Each structure stands twice: as structure tokens, then as C-alpha cells.
Amino acid sequence: MECGYRCEEISTVDHILTGREVLKYEIFGDEDESVRNIEGMIEEFKERFQLDTDKLFKKYDMDELSENEELKWKFTDNLINEICIKMGISKEYFNYALWLCKTKQNVIDCYGFDGSITEDQLVTYPIGDILISDLGIEGQLYGYKKEPKPIEEET
User: Fold this and answer.
1) How many CB atoms are located within 10 Å of the residue 115 CB?
2) Contact 102/137 with Cβ under 8 angstroms?
3) Which residues 6+ apart lie within 8 Å of 83 measured at CB?
4) Potential cystine with 133: which of 1, 128, 140, 141 (Cβ 3.0-4.6 Å)?
5) Which is nearest to 45 in space by CA: 3, 87, 99, 6?
6) CA-to-CA distance for 129 and 24, rounded, in angstroms?
7) Is 80 helix (H, G, I), strand (E, B) or coil?
8) What is 4-29 written as a DSSP string?
9) In 3-state terms, what secondary structure has residue 34?
10) At the top level of its lineage, which domain of life is listed (predicted)?
11) Secondary structure (DSSP) of 127-147
């Protein structure tokens, strides 16, 4: 079984989020941020899923989108719908989402500032049902139909 790694201790939440929640946060940030990484994420989705981003944005005024929480959720839902259509999949693939790194060392190198993460803090998860985003050594965002459970590694 293919797997990935993460450190739960640096997560800002204590449960596994939905794909919708993760995408909304990655694109727009939290309530204190207006737009976090909309251009980077959308450009990746345009390439990865061959999305017509002009069509996606046509429905929204960017100033209003950056300030209106309800519109941010609506945009995220439309984005998921477009991905599902392009991929020929159901929204179930976005029931849960996790950022995972391909190796334990990637987690430590990318997120263990000043030695703050050790290998014994890492959790192993199965790779998800769909690859949503890929940041190389910094991690991949996977979507899952069912809630992913940690894999117990034998010592």
C-alpha cells in the first residue's frame, strides 16, 4: 500500500477536514485573510484538471469574492464541481482531505523548523483516492471518499 507522512502536532485542527474546507483555506486563507493563494492554486488546477478558469471566474467579482465568506464557499463548491466534471468523479472524492509528504524526511526538512519535528512524531496515512494538489517535496493534497485512518507501522 502506498503511503504518505504528516505531523499531526503542527496541524491547526484536531480532526480531518473535508476537501471543501481544505481547498477554501488554501485558496482564501482564514477569516483574517482575504485571498491566500488563489492564483497559485487555480493555475495548478487549470493545468492538472484542464479547467476553464475564465468560466469559473466569470461568475464572480474579485473584490467581492475576496471579502465575502459566503461567496468564497460558493466559489470553492463551483471549483469542486468543475474538477468532478473534468475527472468524471463524484463529490465523494472530496469527503476528506489530507496534506501528506512522500517521505518522512520531507516532513522533517520542510516543517521541522529548528529540529521541532522528530521521526517519532510522524503519522503514516494511505495515499488518497485523488491527487488534488502537488507541491513537490512540501507535500501533496489528497482527497478521500472515506475518512483516512493512520497506518500502524511495525517497529
Assistant:
1) 7
2) yes
3) 45, 49, 51, 89, 132
4) 141
5) 87
6) 19
7) helix
8) EEEEGGG-SSSSPPPHHHHHHHHHH-
9) coil
10) Eukaryota
11) --SEEEEE-GGG-EEEEESS-
pTM: 0.88
Q: What is the Cα–Cα distance from 43 to 109, expressed in whole angstroms?
A: 26
Alpha-carbon distance 70 to 127, whole Å? 31
**Would you state the cell numbers that stand for residue 68, as one nine-digit string?**
465575502
For residues 96 and 148, what is the distance between their CA atoms, to the nearest angstrom?
Answer: 8
How does pLDDT run along the chain (155 residues), one tens digit per residue?
A: 899 999 988 776 778 899 999 999 888 876 655 555 677 888 888 899 999 888 888 888 888 888 889 999 999 999 999 999 999 999 999 999 999 999 999 999 888 877 788 888 899 999 999 999 999 999 999 999 999 999 986 65
DSSP state of 43: H
Which cell is 24 given? 477554501
What single-letter amino acid sits at 55? K
Whole-number Å distance between alpha carbons of 53 and 60 = 12
